[in-house]
Each structure stands twice: as structure tokens, then as C-alpha cells.
Amino acid sequence: MPYIGKSPGKLGVRQRYYYTATGSETSKSGTDDNGISLKFEDGEYVDVYLNGSLLVAGSDYNTNTTNTISGLAALAANDILEVVVYDIFSLAKVNTEAQRTKYYKTASGGETSITGTDDSGATITFSAGAQIDVRLNGVSLKQGDDYNTTTANTVGGLTALTAGQLVEIVVYEKFVLADMVKKSGDTMTGALSAPSISTTGNITASGNTNVTGNVDVGGSLLVDTVKEGTGTNTAMTIDSNGYVSMPNTTELDIWNLPSDVTISSSTTQDITTLTRWAVDWEKIGTGMSHSSGVFTFPSTGKWRCTAKLYWQGSNGGFYFGIINRFSTDSGSTFTDRAYAYQNAATSEYADTTTVMYVDVTNVSTARAKFSIQTHASGTMGGNAAQLRTYVVFEKLAAT
């Protein structure tokens, strides 16, 4: 949002330029009578007067060419063209609405109020009681005496106009500067949108802060929530203790075998009785879904699946192992992705661990399960209060 006024480090809020015509000119640019070069950033913030009479932007002149007043009727020798340029700088408003809007309305005769659309078809818009500027044939009128804004979008209380008179209405957008940008270390209570932000103090925002460039902060950046570009999905939250949560990024879920499972012979079978571990622990993120040994992922991403098997052999010298399996067709078929094996003597305990890395690109079709494979009978160790046979799911990054 442009703001009328000099940017930091400069003085004044406007610059006047005076040009004395030599005759027949239709444009003015370059140095004026005082040797000052005409310069402006936005033609919306330029006023032009000819011999003291205000000209109509778009009709009597235009600013289509950089730093040039063009489209003038041929000037006569010694005509005085005055150009007033208001300095602007950006306070990074959420939209691109101008700081002021001009409307021009040519009277048809007899009007005591102006409303609706102006000569260009633009709808005259301002709130009831708004502080606006109104000029009649270039002469400023006094609000309250010559006109009023009691009714929204209407300039009322005018002396009956005559045909051909030109009414200029200037509407300034109302905003609270403290809601947009405050001095170093203060709190910003509204929304901020900017190409970049640089400060040596704190930035505190209770609204949205949209920055397309760099944010350079020498103090503290105080943030409750960080969202993705559209402002729909939360990427990160920071609680009052300073703990960071990234609900769509961080996932860590543990599933445990709560009791022993006896294996009576050589077999390959799925581990189906795992339950979510909750002893001094709570899952991070959404967590996995589980049904009869088959796991469903909560979100796409690159995942690490670690499985540990705790085993007591009952027939010495024979192997036991665990297999990590992955499906991309909703569990119709599973592919073995990782193996780990160990030997266990009779009545002795042993364990083995394996890790599977998978890229989950579709949560509707991705599935995981874990199987035990043994060459002899034994016991798959489980305990409700201890992690013996268990599986850990960790999301490492986005897909």
C-alpha cells in the first residue's frame, strides 16, 4: 500500500515543479525553471495545474511516459505549468489498493449530490462520514459547509450544479499505521505483506505475515503459527514454552507386541497383534492406522520403518528372522523390502533388527506389514510395559 510521505532519511512530503512554456509544447519533462528534474514513481500521486487551474488526469494530461507530463493541449508562451509530486513508499499492504483514488464527474445540471459512477465508469466508493477532498472546477470545497459525506458513497449538500461543471472527488484509503508497521521492538496487530523485511528489533504479528523476499531480523521473530503460501495448511506451531510442532512434517509412531506369541513350528507369518506404545510416550503427529497387521500411512513422504524381533528359541541352532514388507496396491500384493536373521540356542534369548526405507507417494494405496520367519519353534517375546518386539515409523521428509 503506498503511503503519502517521504521514506525514512528524507525530508518533506511533496515536491513542486514549475515550467514556463515557450509556446506550443504538449508535454513537459526534465529540469524545471529552478533546475530540478521532474521525477515521480506513480502517476496516481501527481497533480498538475495550468496557470493555477487544476487539470484532469487522463483528460487534460497523462503520465503514461516515465517522469513526463504528456497529452497537454498546446501551451501558449508564458503559460505556467505546475506539477506537484507526492513521495510514496510501500508499507506492504495485503492487497494492491491505492492510497488515494480520484473520481471526476461532469455535471449535467441541477445536481446537489454526486454518487454512482464517474465519467470513466468507476464506481464512487467511500464510507459514510469519510474525510475526502472535493474540488469544483479545480477549487477546493469545504467539508461540512459546501458538501457532506453523511451517506456512504455520496457527496451530498452541494449547491445546485450547472451543466459542464467538473467535480473532482479524492478518496484517501483509511488505515491505522500501527496496524501495519511499527518501530523496532513493537507489536504489529494486523496483517503484513511485503517483498522483504529487515529490522534490528523484534517483529510480532497477531495477523498474517506474507513475505516474498528475505526476512532479516537482528532481534526476535515472535511467531505462533507458520503456514504455507495460501494460508490454509499449518506447517509449524510454537507453544508458550517455545516447543515447536510441525504437524504435516514430523511423524513418529511406535507399535509394540504386548505379550508373548508362541510359534510351534517352522513358519512364515505376519505379526498381527501389535498395539500403539503408550508407556511414558505419545505419538508425534497423526500416527499410523493399523488393522490385522497391515499399516496405513497418514501422509505422503519418505519414511523409515524399523522393526525389532525379540526371540527365545526352543530348538537350538536354528535361525529366526523378521521381514519388512511394502505394498503400493492397497495391500493386494506385498514386496519384501528388508530382512534380518539371527540364531538362538535352546532357551536362549536373542534379537534382530531391520530397517525399511519407503517413499510413500499415495496414502490411499501404500501399506506396510511385518512378518516373522523361523526354522524351528520358539517364542516371539512381547511385553505391555517393555519394548521387546516392536516397530517404529518415522517420517524423514516430504516425498
Low-confidence spans: pLDDT under 50, at least 5 residues? 1-12, 90-98, 174-186
- Main beta sheet, described? 7 strands, antiparallel
* Overall geometry: rod-shaped
| Spatial separation of the terminal alpha carbons | 38 Å
- Total number of distinct structural domains: 4
Which fold does the CATH topology of the largest domain refer to? Jelly Rolls
Rg over CA atoms, rounded to whole Å, is 37 Å
Instruction: Determine the structural class based on helices, strands and strand pairing.
Output: mainly beta
Report helical residue fraction. Answer: under 10%
CATH architecture of the largest domain: Sandwich
What's the number of helices?
Answer: 1
Proportion of beta-strand residues: 35-45%
**How many strands?**
37
Please tell me about this protein's structure.
This protein has 399 residues and is an all-beta fold. The protein has four domains: 2-90, no CATH class; 99-175; 179-245, no CATH class; 251-397, Jelly Rolls (Sandwich), CATH 2.60.120.40. Helix content is 1%, strand content 42%. The chain is built from one helix and 37 strands. It has one helix at residues 177-180, and strands at 2-4, 14-20, 28-29, 46-50, 53-54, 68-69, 80-86, 88-90, 100-106, 114-115, 133-136, 139-140, 154-155, 166-172, 187-188, 192-194, 197-199, 203-205, 209-211, 215-217, 221-222, 225-227, 234-238, 244-245, 251-256, 261-263, 267-270, 275-276, 289-291, 294-296, 301-313, 318-327, 335-344, 349-360, 367-374, 378-380, 390-397. Strands 25, 26, 28, 31, 34, 36 and 37 form a seven-stranded antiparallel β-sheet that branches. Strands 27, 29, 30, 32, 33 and 35 form a six-stranded antiparallel β-sheet that branches. A hairpin with a 2-residue loop joins strand 4 and strand 5 (53-54). The longest helix is centred in the middle third of the chain and has 4 residues, at 177-180. The protein is rod-shaped and about 115 Å long. It starts with a strand and ends with a strand. 21% of the residues are buried. Residues 1-12, 90-98 and 174-186 have low confidence and may be disordered.
